[in-house]
Amino acid sequence: MKTKLLNELQKQGIPNFSLFQTSEALAILPELLLELLEQEKADFQALIQKTNESLTFEDFVLESQLAYLWKIINHLDAVETNQEIRAIIADFRPKYEDFVNEVAYSQSYYQKLLRASEHFEKNPDQQRWFDLTLKAFEQRGIALPAEEQEQLKNLNKQLSELGEKFQHNVVDEQSAFLLHFDDEADFQEMPEELLAKMNALAGEKWGLAVNADPNLLVAVSKYCSNPEIRKQVAFQREQWASEGKFDNRPLALALLKLNQEKSKILGYANAGEMFLWATMAQDPDQVFDFIKPISAKAMQKAKSEVQTLQEYFQLSDLSSYDLAYYTRKYKEEQYALNDEELKQYFEFESVLKWLHSFVFKFFGVELRARAESAFWSLGHESRYEVYHQGELVAYYMLDAFYRKGKRPWAWADYLREKGNGQLPIVVNVCNFQKAESWPSLLYLRDVETLFHEFGHALHAMLAGSPYAELSGFNVEWDFVELPSQLMENWASNPEALKSLAKHYQTWLPMPEKLVQTLRDLKTFMMGNWVSRQNELALLDMTLYTSSIPNSVEELDQKILEIVNQYSIFPRGEEYKMYCAFLHIFGGGYEAKYYSYMRAELLEADVFQTIKKAWIFNPEIWSAYKEKILIPWTRKPASELFFDFMQRKPSDEALMKKYGLLA
């Protein structure tokens, strides 16, 4: 079995995941991980022992079978909860991180890098690689005394362990969640397809039920006529992992404390500064100065939107858990826009085909499906070979639909990074609702999510540098979302909809009247959406730049004070959404959640330029590909933006996009 697993790691394409999940593989994986770790340790020591004169650049960028296997195991844990895999991860992680820390704080290695950067003949990519690698060493504290470095190593291990536990708690509680409703009369407005799912979940028990499927929970918010049930579901979504054996509050507090301790050792004023070292913003004040004015304008628009709903439905008050319900009814009554009818124009396979056709036409990127049975090992992925202008450049996998035990939300990642003759394997994971039989229809927000994550994948697949460090998601974090958010425009742009949106039965295009309605509603309720995004961004940045509470009770209170300062709706003691805020607790967006809005500004600015040239102009897309997508981290993000736009960013397009100019 060990030989089979090693052979699978050496293959170019996407691995056969089922092989790694067999009982034989699970039994041997701990031993194999340790063997690969010992080999990497030996290789590293051999590198350290090499004379400076015998070193080449390739010695510093060797491929890692261990890193690839570790990625596979962690991917399986994220998409297919398995207690055996989780135990393997928990046992091996500290051993692996000890070695990662050994490399990260090796003075011998750092000195060899310094000398090589000064004496090697280098091309521009290699020079950039050295610059970024040395900067990362310095940021990690390579110049600190050995005692403080040991403290940092220990903190890094604790942060990794707690972050993983935080994520697992959310998945585990959601996996066990089932909520029953006795009175079906409260759900008469619910679409039949969703009612059937709720009925099936209830099983032999009378009534209906929902699990943690976000599609069902959102549907209850939109279609349930009983405000008490809407409130119950909303409160549940705001309280994941906030009590009992899955309580994430102590973990959140510990993560904040450990990050603060780490930042102090590294010489930063707070953790926010530490996390921003590799961003365009550079410091928290720039983030606050950017977000707060947008938040103020969005808040003003949001209040007006809420007032419109209150007046139209003659409501004395409107709570946060009522917003989705009355927004849906308002659009149906005032604009004859029904989300369930709108879904009929977004059949999943048809949307996917259009997306692939678009990137082929404008980027020269072709996705060729792999249909062999051996390549469908988990039964819920689509797998592709990716060609750019006829050359195989990557492998791509899409895991699109929700299932129990899968981490929530959507993401893009590398399964294997580019380098040393190996092509990258890029993964998109989403949580759409799958129909029992054809067709699976997508909401407009689902189409936007699909396009968003594929924008990340496209960015990763087209990276031009041969080195992983310049090809992965290593560009400044407040720039990394630009390609993904730019792709979202194709889900709702009127010109794109004419060819994208086809009725799943007649295959006729979306009627012009419906296209116009979507255009008219482009900024409707955007004040509330932007306010919510900025509320989360300001919560994130405030938590990582201010003093740390002494207890979970104080943390609860502090978060309430922050969100009530920036939220359009007042929050009560029950509000514990931070306990499932996976982005900022071990999810890689600590003190960087603002980057979504920052990238929104950059994307809106770029897309406005594209529209001026006409959105189906191949020349403008070629320029975008050559100046932003392919260079990746070969240049600082500000230079990439300037190369394409020939100027610095402006917020005018963002304000126009969300109707915030007034």
Summarize the structure.
The chain has 662 residues and is of the alpha+beta class. It has helices spanning 2-10, 17-20, 23-49, 65-79, 83-104, 107-119, 124-140, 146-176, 192-202, 214-223, 227-237, 249-265, 271-275, 284-313, 323-335, 339-343, 348-363, 444-462, 482-487, 494-500, 512-520, 526-543, 552-566, 595-613, 618-629, 637-645, 652-657; strands at 179-181, 208-210, 365-369, 382-388, 391-401, 411-416, 425-432.
Strand content: 5-15%
Briefly note the structural class of the backbone.
Answer: alpha+beta
Number of helices: 27
Please tell me the overall pLDDT.
94
Uncertain regions: pLDDT < 50 for 5+ in a row? Answer: 373-378
The description of the largest β-sheet is:
5 strands, mixed
